[in-house]
Structure formats: C-alpha cells, structure tokens
Design brief:
The chain is an alpha/beta fold. It contains ten helices and 20 strands. The chain has two domains: about 280 residues, Aminopeptidase, CATH 3.40.630; about 130 residues, Roll (Aminopeptidase i, Domain 2), CATH 2.30.250. Bound molecules: zinc ion (ZN).
Length: about 450
C-alpha cells in the first residue's frame, strides 16, 4: 500500500488536531487560529460585514461552531457557494453541574453520556477534562467565557475485576448513571478535596475563584495518544477520528484549493451532530443560509440574487463511514463494502439518511476521476440500520445539492477508532479539488 499519508505532513497535521481537539470549543479555536495565520480576517457574527473580493474570512458562532470562507476575485451575482461541513463534537462523558460525589474514601464525578459512545471502551482509560467555563463579567448579558484543558489524566472509570463478575465476557450492560462515574481522587480528610474538590481544581485551571464560576461545559476525553500501526504503519488508531478527520480535511481543503476565480468557497464546522444537529450551533440551524445571505448582501445583491446564488450552491457533508470489519464482514453490504485504504467513501441510502443523490454523486466522482483521487460508493446492508449525519438535515432547508462522504473507519464511537492513514490524503485532496475546480452548478 502506498504510504503517502504517513510520510507527508498530512497525517502530522491530523494528529495535531486529534491531540488538540479535546472539546468542540478547542477544535473551533484551533481551526480559527489556522485560518487567522493564513490571513483570514475574523468577523463578528452579528456585525455588518463589508467584505472584499479576493479575501478570506472566518466567524465563530456560539463558541463551538465556525464558518470560514473565501470570496473569490470574480464573485458576482448568481454565482454559487461551494460548502463543506463537518462536526466538531464526539460521543463522550460530560461532567454534570455539582459533579463531586464521595464513595467512602473515594472522590467520584457525576457525569452524563453525550451522544452514543460504546460505553465499555471508556473503561480503564486515562481521562482528562476540557471545555468552556462561564465566569461573571461586568455586564450580566455578557459573561466571560474561558477555555480550560486539564491536559493530564485526572480520572478513570474502572472496570470490575473478572473475579467479581465471572460472566463479564458474555457481555454486560453498563448503567449510564451508576457504572460510568469516574474515580477522580481520594478524600484524605473532610474539606481537603472532598465535596467540591473537582470544582475547586477546575476553578484553579480557569484562573478564577470557585464562586466566580457560573457554569461549565466539560467533556471528559481519552488521553491516549494517536498511534500509527500495521506492518507498514498503514493504519492510524486514535480517539476522536469521528469527526476530526473531516474537520481537518475541510480546513486543509479550503486553504489549499484557493485558485478558483468565481463564487464563494466555505468550510463550516457545526456542533451537536452526535445529538441530532437541531440546535442553533448545529447543522439543523438556519445559520448557514443566514451567513450565505449576509455574504451576498455585503456585495449589494438583491433578495432574488441571494436565493438564486444558494440554489446554485453545493454542499459536502463530511463525516466518517463504516469500513468493512475484518472479523465481522457479514455486517457490511454484500456488493458495496468499503475497506480501510479504499479512499473516500461516498455514502448512499435510498431512504435518505444520507442526502446524496445521483447527480451530486456524478459531480464528486468526476472530480475524483479528474484528480486521481480514490473513492468508492458505500451502501449499508438492508437489514442493518446504519447511522445518519448532518447532510440530510442541512440540505432540507438550505436546499443545496448535497453529498455525504468521508473516510472509512472501524469501531465508530469507540474511545479509540481506526482508519487508514492514506485515506486522509484522499479526503483532503478531494476537498482541495472541490474548491479549486472550475465549473458552475445550474438548475
Ligand atoms: Zn460523525
């Protein structure tokens, strides 16, 4: 197998995101920083935008979503947008308010389950905590927010010894409240890290007094490092492949595919895909059409121009796909399986869990063919209910041609997932070509 992915900077860049994207807020921050360094200017979401052709911009929305776009030099009336979207969130444990609990000499954390993780893969991991803390500010309506990352293992959810459950290898059901509470410390004496020990440690991380904290949104994340493995190091095992592979490919693609003359090229990072997307910062938000309209308005285009521009636009919904499992091949479709290393998976489902339609697939396959990018059509087994993603939700009201695609992985929603390193090259290459290639969508 060719090793492009391992030798170039592509996989290093991905690993940097996998290590740094420890909460949706941190992922947005990292991407914003990369766009800023590339000369993109930051805009305020509710500001009046005076945009210039030939420039790039980015705008953060609610801390965990981001829109980055480049207005190409010849952007004119009725020209479409090329958009690619990925999600910043991943299934995990989230720390609840007043999280400190005691069990004898042990300090534990009260957590809830975010999205659909494979719970048993979260046991016995070195877990850290990262996210956003809201602090008192000068104006009640503008509290101060601060990102925090403990950056070191602070807790673990221990398994029960096999001696205490001899049937464990027959499979067990973990209770989301009782069995997933992490061990975070020892209570040495009353008042020394007992009932509020975690909150006090969090305040110290945030550089604030505990009483200044109005609220916090913290993900527990797996501190395991990403590792290349395989006889030729052709695979990458890492936490958070879903969906930082796609986030990084969207960022790289937009920054690299910068030679198109017309239209607007945009990368969007949405939060809340793992819980259904129907939030103000999720793909079910009207924010994408609002941002597109603000861009058109900034150039003085009329209502109808804005609508027509949108109707000529194209959306890639970029998210991971299910690769064929080496020990459970019967779980994949009989004629449309995708193996790790096959390149980009174009996801199809006639009941529209994936938004992909025939014309839109045609567009993407032609781009792949013209640029020598490996890709394969994915379909699920008819008797297995697959997942869905943000594509169908966003395309229903943005009304854009949409394709769902992404790299194939194993063990989706495990605390560690596996992909082929070379597939990141294919995905980022496709995104760059998508933004770069000439041609217009008409309907
Ligand atoms: Zn995903």
């Amino acid at each position: 197998m060719e090793m492009r992915g391992c030798k170039g900077g592509r996989i290093d860049g991905l690993i940097r995101y996998l290590e740094g994207g420890v909460s949706p807020f941190h992922t947005v921050d990292m991407a914003a920083e990369e766009f800023a360094q590339a000369g993109y200017r930051e805009l305020e979401l509710s500001g009046s935008w005076m945009l210039e052709r030939g420039r790039g911009y980015y705008v953060r929305a609610y801390g965990s979503s981001l829109f980055a776009f480049r207005v190409n030099p010849g952007f004119g009336r009725l020209q479409g947008f090329r958009v690619a979207a990925a999600h910043t969130d991943w299934p995990c444990l989230r720390v609840k308010a007043a999280p400190d609990m005691a069990q004898g000499a042990y300090a534990k954390l009260n957590v809830e389950i975010y999205g659909g993780p494979i719970l048993n893969t979260w046991l016995d991991r070195p877990l850290s905590a990262a996210g956003r803390v809201t602090l008192s500010g000068e104006d009640c309506f503008s509290p101060v927010t601060r990102l925090v990352d403990f950056k070191r293992p602070v807790c673990t959810v221990p398994n029960l010894a096999i001696h205490m459950n001899r049937d464990v290898n027959k499979g067990i059901e973990l209770n989301r409240q009782k069995d997933m509470a992490p061990l975070v410390g020892r209570i040495l004496e009353e008042g020394s890290g007992g009932r509020d020990g975690f909150v006090r440690a969090l305040a110290a991380e945030a550089g604030a007094a505990p009483e200044e904290i109005l609220y916090f949104e913290l993900s527990l994340y797996n501190c395991d490092r990403p590792e290349l493995f395989g006889l030729d190091r052709e695979f990458l095992s890492s936490p958070r492949l879903d969906n930082l592979t796609s986030v990084k490919a969207c960022v790289d693609g937009l920054l690299e595919g910068d030679s198109r003359e017309i239209g607007v090229d945009m990368a969007v990072l949405f939060d809340h895909e793992e819980v259904g997307s129907r939030t103000k910062q999720g793909a079910g938000s009207v924010l994408l059409p609002i941002v597109m309209e603000k861009i058109c308005r900034s150039f003085g285009y009329s209502d109808e121009d804005c609508l027509n521009s949108r109707l000529r636009s194209f959306l890639l919904s970029v998210d991971v796909a299910h690769g064929l499992h080496p020990n459970q091949p019967e779980k994949s479709d009989v004629t449309n399986p995708v193996f790790l290393g096959d390149g980009v998976a174009i996801k199809t489902e006639s009941c529209q869990k994936y938004a992909t339609d025939g014309e839109a697939i045609g567009v993407i396959r032609e781009i792949c063919r013209a640029n020598g990018i490996p890709c394969r059509i994915f379909a699920g087994r008819s008797d297995v209910t697959g997942g869905s993603t943000l594509g169908s939700i966003a395309s229903s009201f943005t009304v854009m041609d949409t394709v769902d695609l992404g790299v194939p992985i194993l063990a989706m929603h495990s605390a560690r997932e596996t992909m082929a390193a070379a597939d990141q090259e294919a995905l980022a290459g496709l995104l760059a070509a998508y933004y770069r290639m000439s041609g217009e969508r008409r309907r």
